[in-house]
Every structure is written in structure tokens, then in C-alpha cells.
Specification:
heterodimer, A: mainly alpha, MetI-like fold, two-stranded antiparallel sheet, B: alpha/beta, D-Maltodextrin-Binding Protein, domain 2, five-stranded mixed β-sheet, 10 strands, 10% strand
């Protein structure tokens, strides 16, 4: 008797028509998610424990954790991680203040903010490859802008080949990266800035807060979400940075400017180590997700930003 | 209704999943090798099934592709031509391709998917072979670069076709076949169409100005560089942005120091890339860099820029492949070539006993794939490749682009540098391809090329050797 009652309750709760409609609405998203996210991630995870030379029909031999062990023992992996860290440092030390400063500028009451907005955003519109090539040509010691300026000074000594000097080349790319993305991140901060009610700032001004004090005690605390978005994008972007460094140095010379994503690419397409390349993918995924969770934790609601 | 919906949704899910791995499912028809599930068994199955495709053709005993009947066969080829009207070879190729498609209308149609940039080309080829959607024919340079395709059984043995058309085989110079023949395999797995060796081009005027004779030995070269430098003339702008450049020279120098045995010794481990012999070679290269004889901005200069600097009199020497005989007449500044100021000689020897030993041989080679290809497709591909590589065809190509070819070219192009190069090559007493080509480690080529770049960033010769060996071990 009791079970019959429960059945009736269940039947009343789940209407078949509603269920069908729900499934139909969810199906496209589930299918797309499965085909383009879940399946590739699962396949990458599966392949990361195997050895495969990328040859169709050749078996993927199970080798346990060997790919991961070899990666962690490879000094090139740690060098690549260090290069990603340089990007992260550059992101927080250079890009964040720069983008925030530009955002303050374009949301201020000075004249010509539309012009500034366009100028700052222009590098993003140019695209990574165009920006990378432009800077590569400018820095070329044979014929670039640096070469021309150097010649104008009458100095006959040779010019430092910055894109082929260890560590310096990574920092040069970091700077180009910040130059390019300052405009993009400016928009993130600008969106946060315009969302702050004007009367809060006015109240602070009436209380005698100076411009800097208003930024420090009103603007920044109220822009927590903008900083959170920037931080997550910056961290995940730096871990998987590929395009700009590939276009400017191709990870060279001799792999010194490689990043984990470049290693992932070369392991598969240069060295035909598709299993190890997949292990790189899994490491990047785990690292990206972990750091995103940590960042979220850092920016949780009950925590003060400054 | 519920069942119908459930089935429909399940079908949608399955179709979605299959579309995600579409190439695999398509490939499951044809001569699919994916049925094998474990280790060597899969490779063996792949080999035997791919070989089966070729055997079917062989079983018919008919290799006379010129007289076969074809019906709307679609072929896709991946080469490295740069596009119509870009250079002599490409122009010739695309005209020839159009001509073939016209002559075989309704029977065979070939679509060219050339990619000229080497790294992009390699990436596409790797992806195609991984997905089972390999082109019908592709271009490579032999050795370790195609060994895995061969081991997997995806390359066609052309021997029976050469037996059918002996003139086709005989049209190729013997030394050029090395890109198509492998230890442990009896067949001939491709057909080369170009050949090369490293030569040293020099500017006669600049050498005269500094009172320098054409160097014969490496010591002569070092002395010549010192004299040129003292006279205010830059000896080289020896670049390595295109990182094949130093690896080519390393191979050449090792052959000129230790003879052709060094290739086999490095391949079987008797010698190593961090051993005394090879470190000596890196040291000789590094000495030239440190003395400033190879110029500045080594890693920011590509070979085309280096050549143009040589052509404009900014350097006395230029070491590169024989293909430059054609480049010198096609570049923007041909004044030195026109005035016959450019001379050519062998790369200086390190040990006189190996003065006539060279790095070179067959270069660009066409390979035909059997992976998921029908017998008709394979036969049609052979017909097309034959159409491109007969002596008559290559004679035409040589007219458009005078350089050294694998085939026995019979025409006189009137290119004085090419005539000199041909004389030099005729006197060779042994040649080998690039040394990494002989390694069983498919990562050898890239690791060596990358590691040698470190010479230009100040690394010690011994460190470069250790770096090569460590990386090769890591990527084995």
C-alpha cells in the first residue's frame, strides 16, 4: 500500500511530457559537450598512459605512468614551466596595473576617451600573428627598426639579438604580450568601473577622500569580480600560452623559450610522441583547473581584496 | 512515444560521437588496419593488410599503368611546391599537373595540396597519417623521416613497376636511390627527382681583393677568413635561423673528417654525438662563430637573406646546397652571377683522404601510400608519379629551374655554375645523406638541428654534444 502511494507521488512529480521536453532541450548541449569536450578530454587522458607514434592502425601500447615520469624528469619541462611563470609574473606585475590604469583613463571625464579606447584596443584587433611578426621584424638586428635606430647613432658595434638570447627573449615576448592585451583587459576593468554607482564615489569625495584614497578604498574593493576575472584569464592563459611565443621564437633557440603548450605540440608533431603529448595536455588541464579553483577561493565573497 | 524518443536521442548521440571521429569510421572500410588491438600485432596487421593492397595489384600481374583503364579516380597529393608562377620548379609542376588532368579527363583527377613551409607540411602529413586519411602520394627526403611509414607498411614498393618500365628506373642516377632503400627491406619505396650536395660558393672579386686563394682544406678556410676579415671583408653570414643549415654543415664536415663510415657508426652507436670525434666538429664550427667569421645575428638570419647578402657582395663565401645554381638566376640581384663573379668549389676537407667525400644524394622523393587506398587508386598514383619523373619530364623541369636532379638530365641549361657543380659531383668518391637520416631514432633530425643552434648562443661544444644525446634518449 505504502509503495503504491510512493509510486503515485513519483508519477505526479515527473511528468513524462516535461521530461521529454527537458531531454530534447538538453540533448544538443549534451551531444556537443560530449563530442567536443568530454570525449576529447577522456581520449587524451586515455592516450596519456600509452605509447603511440601517431601512425593510424598502429596499436597504442599501455605504459602506465611512464609518460608522466619522463615529463617530470625532463629539464625542458621545468624550463617551459618557468617561462609560463614569467608570463604570469608579467601579467600581474605589468599587465594588470597597466590595464587598470588605462581603464581609469577611458572611464574618466577627460576629452577624447573614444579615441584612446580605439588606440588601446587596436593591438587586439590586429591579431596575435600580425603583432608577433610586426615586433619580430622591428627587433630584427639585420634590418629592423632597432637596427635602423642603432645605425643612426653611428655605433658600429653589433646589436644584441634579443629574440635569440636566453631568458631575455621570453621577457621580450612577455612585454609584447602585455602591450597587445592591455586593451583587452582594459575593457574588463572598464566594465567593472562603470558598474560602480557614482554616488558612492561622490560620498567618499564629500568625506574628504583624495583621488588615490577613493581608488584604494572604494573602487578596488568594489571591483573584486573584475580582478577575479582578470586573474583567472591571466593564470589559465599563461599556462597555455602558445601563439605569440610560437610566432616570435618558435620556442627556440634550442627550446629555451618553449612553454608547456609548445612542448605539447612538438612532442606530437616533431617527435611523434603522441602519448607524451597527451600527458602534457592532462598536466596543463589539471594545473589550469587547480589554479582556477585556488583563484576563486582567494577571491571568495567573505574575503577583503586589500 | 517514449521509446521512439529514447531511440531517437540515442541515435543522435551515437551519430554525434561518430561524426567526432569521422575519419576513423570512414577508414574502417578500405584496407583498414585498425582491427588489431595490441602492440606488434597491430603493426603486423597494418603491414600485412597494406601490403595486401599492393599484392592485389601484383596478383593481377599487371603493372602496365600507362595502359590500364581508369574510371573517375580521385587522387590527392601533398608536395611542397610554392604555387603557380612562383618559381621555375613550381611553374613546371603545375603546368604538368594541369596537362595530366586534361589528358586523363574522366579517368584520373589529381588534386594538389602543396604546402611549402616545411613545419606546416610535416604537421599536415603527420595529422593525415594519424587519422588514416593519408594522401595518395607525398614528398619526403628519405631516411628516418619516412621509416615509420615504411615500418607501418604504408609505403608502396615500386619494384614491380620499375620492372615493368626499366627505363623509368634506369633514368635515375644510382647514387640518388638511397632515399628509397632501407636495410631490412628489399624493395624500392619511392622515386627521387632531385639531388644535391653541399658546395661552397665564393665571390671571386672579394677573394682577389684580399689576396686569398680558393681554400681547399679547413685550415685554408680559417686562414682565408682571417685575411678577409683583416681586409675589412666579412667572410660569411652563416645563418641558422633555418636550422637545417648547421646540421647540413655538421654532416658535411663529419664526412670530410672521418669518411662515409661515420654515418653507419653513429647509427649503430659505435660513435656517439657526444663522442670526441663529433665534439671536434662542433668545436671547429664554434671557433668560426667565436672569431666572428660567420657574422652576427646568426639566429635571426634565414638562408634567403644570407644568400641575398652574398649576392650583393656583403660576404665572400656562401655554403649551401647545389639548388642555389637555380636561385642565383632567379633572385632579384643577379649582377654577380651575370658577371660570372660567383665561383663554386667543394666544401673544404678536414682530412685530405676524404676530400672527395660529400654529403648529398637523392633529395626530394615521391612516396606512394597504400593506407586505405584501393588498387585502382594506387595504380593511378603510380601513373601520375611516373608522369612527373621520367627523364623527359625532368629535362623540362631542369630547363625551368637549372639545378641538380636525380634523373639523368640530358640537356644543357647554359648555367655556368651548374656545369661546374656537375663536374664536381662527377668526381665524388662517396657520399651520404644527412647523418641524422641514418638514425633509428625518428627524433634525431629535430633534436640535432635544435641543439646545434646553441653553438650560436655561446654553448660549449661538449655541452652541445651532451644536449643532443640527452634529448635523443628522452625522445627515443
Amino acid at each position: 500500500m505504502a509503495s503504491g502511494k510512493n509510486k503515485a507521488v513519483v508519477k505526479n512529480k515527473i511528468n513524462p511530457r516535461d521530461l521529454t521536453i527537458s531531454i530534447l532541450f538538453l540533448a544538443p548541449a549534451i551531444i556537443i559537450c560530449t563530442v567536443f569536450i568530454i570525449y576529447p578530454v577522456a581520449d587524451t587522458f586515455f592516450l596519456s598512459f600509452r605509447k603511440w607514434n601517431g601512425m593510424y592502425g598502429v596499436a597504442k601500447e599501455f605504459i602506465g605512468l611512464e609518460n608522466y615520469i619522463k615529463i617530470f624528469k625532463d629539464k625542458l619541462f621545468w624550463n617551459a614551466m618557468l617561462n609560463s611563470l614569467y608570463f604570469m609574473i608579467g601579467g600581474f606585475v605589468i599587465l594588470m596595473p597597466l590595464a587598470f590604469g588605462l581603464a581609469l583613463l577611458i572611464t574618466s571625464k577627460i576629452k577624447g576617451t573614444s579615441f584612446f579606447k580605439t588606440c588601446y584596443f587596436l593591438p587586439v584587433m590586429l591579431g596575435t600573428t600580425a603583432v608577433a611578426l610586426m615586433w619580430t621584424f622591428m627587433l630584427n638586428p639585420n634590418y629592423g627598426l632597432v637596427h635602423t635606430i642603432h645605425n643612426m647613432t653611428g655605433d658600429t658595434s653589433s646589436i644584441l639579438d634579443v629574440l635569440n638570447t636566453k631568458t631575455l627573449n621570453v621577457w621580450v615576448v612577455v612585454l609584447v604580450n602585455e602591450w597587445m592585451y592591455a586593451g583587452y583587459n582594459m575593457l574588463i576593468f572598464a566594465a567593472g568601473l562603470v558598474a560602480i554607482p557614482q554616488d558612492v564615489n561622490e560620498a567618499a569625495a564629500l568625506d574628504g577622500a583624495t583621488g588615490w584614497q577613493r581608488i584604494r578604498y572604494v573602487t578596488i574593493p568594489l571591483m573584486k569580480n573584475s580582478f577575479k576575472i582578470f586573474s583567472i584569464l591571466c593564470i589559465t592563459g599563461c599556462i597555455k600560452v602558445f601563439d605569440i611565443i610560437w610566432a616570435m621564437t618558435r620556442g627556440g633557440p634550442n627550446d629555451v623559450s618553449s612553454t608547456p603548450s609548445i612542448m605539447l605540440y612538438t612532442q606530437a608533431f616533431s617527435y611523434k610522441l603522441f602519448g607524451r603529448s597527451s600527458a602534457y595536455g592532462v598536466i596543463l588541464l589539471v594545473l589550469g583547473v587547480s589554479l582556477s579553483i585556488l583563484t576563486n577561493h582567494f577571491f571568495r565573497e567573505d574575503k577583503d581584496l586589500m | 512515444m517514449k521509446k521512439v524518443l529514447a531511440i531517437a536521442l540515442s541515435s543522435a548521440m551515437v551519430v554525434g560521437l561518430l561524426s567526432g571521429c569521422g575519419s576513423s569510421s570512414t577508414a574502417a572500410s578500405g584496407t583498414d588496419a585498425s582491427t588489431a588491438t595490441s602492440g606488434d600485432a597491430a603493426a603486423t596487421t597494418a603491414t600485412s593488410e597494406a601490403a595486401g593492397a599492393a599484392e592485389t595489384t601484383q596478383a593481377t600481374g599487371d603493372y602496365d599503368v600507362d595502359n590500364m583503364t581508369f574510371n573517375n579516380v580521385e587522387l590527392r597529393v601533398e608536395f611542397r611546391y610554392t604555387g603557380k608562377d612562383t618559381d621555375g620548379q613550381s611553374t613546371w609542376y603545375y603546368n604538368r599537373l594541369d596537362q595530366f588532368n586534361k589528358e586523363n579527363e574522366g579517368k584520373i583527377h589529381v588534386t594538389d595540396e602543396s604546402i611549402s613551409t616545411e613545419s606546416d607540411y610535416e604537421e599536415k602529413l603527420t595529422t593525415d597519417f594519424a587519422s588514416g586519411d593519408a594522401p595518395n602520394a607525398f614528398l619526403q627526403y628519405g631516411g628516418s623521416r619516412v621509416k615509420e611509414y615504411l615500418d607501418a607498411g604504408y609505403l608502396l614498393d615500386l619494384t614491380p613497376y620499375f620492372n615493368q618500365y626499366p627505363d623509368w628506373y634506369d633514368g635515375v642516377q644510382e647514387f640518388a636511390w638511397e632515399t628509397c632503400k632501407y636495410d631490412g627491406y628489399d624493395g624500392t619505396y619511392g622515386i627521387p627527382w632531385s639531388s644535391y650536395q653541399l658546395n661552397m660558393f665564393y665571390n671571386k672579386d672579394l677573394l682577389n681583393k684580399a689576396g686569398v686563394d680558393v681554400p681547399q682544406s679547413w685550415d685554408d678556410l680559417v686562414d682565408a677568413c682571417a685575411k678577409l676579415k683583416a681586409a675589412g671583408i666579412q667572410p660569411f653570414n652563416y645563418s641558422d635561423k633555418d636550422n637545417y643549415h648547421y646540421e647540413h654543415l655538421m654532416s658535411e664536415m663529419a664526412l670530410k673528417a672521418y669518411g662515409t663510415d661515420i654515418a653507419g657508426n653513429l647509427a649503430d652507436g659505435t660513435e656517439t654525438y657526444d663522442g670526441e670525434k663529433m665534439v671536434k666538429i662542433y668545436q671547429l664550427m664554434k671557433d668560426m662563430i667565436d672569431a666572428g667569421y660567420w657574422g652576427d645575428a646568426i639566429l635571426s638570419t634565414d638562408v634567403a637573406t644570407e644568400r641575398s647578402m652574398f649576392e650583393s657582395g656583403q660576404a665572400a663565401f656562401f655554403i649551401d646546397g647545389t639548388w642555389n645554381c637555380g636561385n642565383f638566376i632567379n633572385d632579384s640581384d643577379t649582377s654577380l652571377f651575370d658577371a660570372q663573379t660567383i665561383g663554386v668549389t667543394r666544401v673544404p676537407y678536414i682530412d685530405e683522404a676524404y676530400q672527395y667525400t660529400e654529403m648529398g644524394g637523392g633529395s626530394d622523393t615521391y612516396y606512394i601510400t597504400t593506407l586505405n587506398k584501393s588498387d585502382e587508386e594506387i595504380a593511378a598514383t603510380v601513373k601520375f608519379i611516373k608522369y612527373l619523373t621520367t627523364v623527359d619530364a625532368i629535362n623540362e623541369m631542369c630547363q625551368s629551374s637549372p639545378t641538380t636532379y636525380a634523373e639523368k638530365v640530358t640537356i644543357d641549361t647554359g648555367n655556368y655554375l651548374l656545369d661546374e657543380v656537375n663536374k664536381i659531383m662527377a668526381e665524388n668518391q662517396g657520399s651520404k645523406l644527412e647523418l641524422p637520416n641514418y638514425s633509428s631514432n625518428t627524433a634525431a633530425m629535430d633534436t640535432i638541428r635544435n641543439s646545434l643552434q646553441a653553438l650560436a648562443t655561446g654553448s660549449a661544444a661538449q655541452d652541445v654534444g651532451s644536449d643532443i644525446v640527452d634529448k635523443m634518449a628522452a625522445y627515443e
